[in-house]
From TrEMBL:
It is found in: Chromosome, Centromere, Kinetochore; Cytoplasm, Cytoskeleton, Spindle; Endoplasmic reticulum membrane. One of its GO terms (biological process) is protein transport. Residues 97-334 form the Centromere/kinetochore protein zw10 middle domain. This is Centromere/kinetochore protein zw10 homolog. Gene3D superfamilies: 1.10.357.150.
Length: 698
């Protein structure tokens, strides 16, 4: 019995294994049959152009093949062949679908690769062969079956991405970028055509409302004729909302489209004047309506997008744009030519904007102050009044660009007074930035001209002084009209004043050093004014003096009517003084001066005395310049020294002693005893009379 039992168990185990093997074989055969059936039904459906059914059968075949491949231990050679067959049929299906898709949505694109110009964009057309015909079956338009079949096969994203790129490049972006471009729609019996027409634009940039209307029209056309298609075929058991093609396309292109709308449309619509900010509500409303329309067509989902956020944040964008425009305008003025000038007189002032009376501020302060004063206050005001021009800028010339720059600063601050707090602060600091930019840009940008051209150096000096003059009161003028944050002493420009004064002075002093160097270089060719009885030496000295006078006259003309009179006279006086001082030093250092030498030196000095004052021509009217030419001793420190030297060159010993007058005469005021003794020794021979004269010079 035991043996029979063992035999039975062995047989049962064998039969069980055989059953399992047969069951597995049967399931594999069943899957193979399913694969075969699916391929056959796919072929039938494809022939009848039932693309959704064909795609579903292909997916069934793919599912069966995956099941077969997952069975371990049954690596059938046929599976490889089936896989190849499935790939071939899938590609065949995709080819047919691609052909159908190209017929449904046909693009006519410009021939050239450069699609950015308006002319090439005009050649772009989109033909939609999706107009439903009257005889069409209830099953829906062929576009639905084609697109749903793509979705079943997982290729819809690829196709839609290409379509979205073409739509952006050839239709949507050109409509945003070119104001003259208008969409033109034409519906025929079996086709809907979308093309462009060009009209003369009224403005350089379209208004957002116009652009939104154009884009909305395009999306309405696409929604009606192409994209209002659910991605999955209808099913009885599915009641939830079905995802449409429009939603899918919207996800793909919205980000790029909204960026383009912001950069090429909304940015240009930001007002440049605070008075126009209220009108911007229309743009915000039209943006809301545009987004609402796109949501209704299911192109957009979710709430506020970047586009609407940008439109609503107009105050911040206005401030940024205004500040940017102000700085760009200022920089353009700074890099324009300096030599175009306007005349500034004590009567002239920047065309100051009329400022409204502050609601708080001056009046309030007056009230507070008056409370501190007793009723019987004594009037301590001096009866002598200051001139109305005491704190005015003297008459001079400045660059017209600097006058415009100052007007820009005033207008920007006026704009700030009518703006929101945040915008007001930004605009105020933009004005400060204008002046800091001037400090950095102008000396660098015009560096070469400021070094080479004396007139430009003088103009730059005036420009800096003019700006510094206005900066003293600029903050105070607007103090109580700016936002409260700036009213507590922050609204000031006074801290910039020393820097601007220094900038102007340093530039002009550098030019003065250059001119001084040229004067000394010319006088160095005078051969130390020695041996004037030698004709060649005399000619060299005469030429040097003539060159110096010519240089001074040229400078006098260049700076005429440019520098303020007092600055002009000081500058010319300093340069003439340099020449006279050098001549005095050279002649005083001579060890031997013959009678002929003395005469010739005197004649050279007389040229300087006679023609030197003539270089003082601060005003264009010659008759008004005589006053300043007579005041030369005031501006030329060594003038009297030079005149005393001329007296010595022509005087005898007794006259020199008389001029010295025991150290109390005019000669003693200009020369030291050692210098006078040195000149006497050079001019006169060693005699007892000379020794007696030298003894009196103490």
């Amino acid at each position: 019995v035991q043996r029979d039992l063992n035999v039975a168990v062995a047989e049962f185990t064998e039969l069980k294994q055989q059953l399992e093997r047969d069951t597995l074989v049967l399931s594999i055969l069943k899957k193979l049959q399913e694969f075969d059936t699916a391929i056959k039904e796919y072929n039938t459906a494809l022939l009848e152009k039932e693309y959704v059914a064909a795609a579903q059968q292909l997916e069934k075949a793919r599912s069966s093949l995956k099941m077969l491949e997952s069975r371990k231990g049954f690596e059938l050679k046929i599976l490889k062949a089936l896989g190849i067959e499935l790939t071939v049929q899938t590609q065949n299906m995709l080819y047919h679908l691609g052909e159908e898709w190209q017929k449904l949505a046909a693009w006519k694109l410009p021939p050239s690769k450069e699609s950015s110009s308006l002319e090439s964009v005009m050649h772009s057309e989109l033909h939609l062969h999706t107009v439903p015909s009257k005889e069409e079956d209830i099953a829906g338009p062929p576009v639905a079956s084609v697109l749903q079949a793509f979705a079943v096969l997982g290729e819809l994203h690829t196709k839609l991405k290409i379509f979205g790129k073409l739509l952006l490049k050839y239709i949507l972006k050109p409509l945003i970028s070119y104001p003259s471009l208008q969409p033109l729609t034409e519906e025929q019996s079996d086709v809907f055509i979308l093309r462009f027409k060009s009209e003369e634009p009224n403005l350089d940039h379209s208004s957002p409302m116009e652009v939104f209307d154009k884009i909305k029209l395009i999306f309405e056309v696409l929604h009606k004729y192409l994209l209002n298609v659910p991605l999955d075929p209808p099913a009885e058991d599915k009641k939830e909302r079905r995802v449409t093609l429009a939603e899918l396309l919207g996800d793909m292109i919205w980000e790029e489209l909204s960026d383009c709308l912001i950069q090429n449309c909304l940015v240009n619509s930001i007002p440049t004047n605070s008075s126009k900010l209220e009108q911007y509500i229309e743009v915000i409303k039209s943006t809301e309506e545009f987004e609402k329309a796109l949501k209704n067509m299911q192109f957009l989902k979710g709430d506020t997008t970047d586009l609407l956020k940008y439109a609503r944040n107009v105050n911040s964008h206005f401030a940024n744009k205004k500040c940017q425009d102000v700085i760009v305008a200022a920089r353009n003025l700074m890099t324009s030519e300096i030599h175009n000038t306007v005349k500034i007189t004590p009567d002239s002032s920047v065309a100051l904007p009329k400022l409204s009376d502050p609601a708080t501020g001056d009046d309030l302060k007056m009230q507070k102050t008056s409370k501190l004063l007793p009723n019987d206050m004594v009037n301590l005001e001096n009866e002598t009044k200051l001139s109305q021009y005491t704190f005015s800028l003297p008459t001079c010339r400045i660059s017209s660009s600097v006058e415009k720059l100052m007007e820009l600063a005033y207008q920007t601050l006026l704009e700030a007074t009518a703006s929101t707090d945040q915008c007001c602060i930004q605009l105020f600091y933009s004005v400060r930035n204008i002046f800091q930019l001037f400090y950095d840009v102008v000396p660098t940008y015009h560096k070469e001209n400021l070094q080479k051209l004396p007139q430009l150096a003088a103009l730059h000096h005036n420009n800096c002084m003019y700006i510094a003059h206005h900066l003293l009161t600029l903050g105070h003028q607007f103090r109580y009209r700016l936002t409260n944050i700036l009213c507590d002493g922050a609204a000031t420009f006074v801290d910039l004043v020393p820097g601007f004064r220094r900038l102007g002075m340093e530039c002009f002093l550098a030019q003065m050093r250059v001119q001084k160097g040229e004067i000394l270089e010319r006088l160095s060719s005078a051969r130390n004014f020695s041996n004037m009885d030698d004709e060649e030496n005399y000619c060299a000295a005469n030429k040097a003096i003539r060159q110096v006078l010519h240089q001074l006259k040229r400078l006098g003309k260049v700076w005429q009517d440019v520098l303020p009179v007092n600055v002009y006279c000081k500058a010319m006086g300093t340069l003439l003084n340099t020449a006279l001082s050098e001549i005095v030093t050279r002649i005083a250092a001579l060890e031997d001066i013959s009678a002929e030498d003395a005469d010739r030196l005197y004649s050279l000095c007389r040229i300087m005395v006679e023609e030197g004052p003539q270089v003082f021509t601060p005003l264009p009217e010659d008759d008004k310049n005589k006053k300043y030419q007579e005041e030369v001793p005031v501006y030329v420190q060594k003038w009297m020294t030079f005149k005393e030297l001329m007296i010595i060159l022509q005087a005898n010993l007794q006259e020199i002693v008389d001029q010295w007058a025991d150290g109390k005469g005019p000669l003693a005021a200009e020369f030291s005893a050692a210098e006078v003794k040195s000149l006497i020794r050079a001019l006169f021979q060693n005699t007892e009379r000379r020794a007696a004269a030298l003894a009196k010079i103490k």
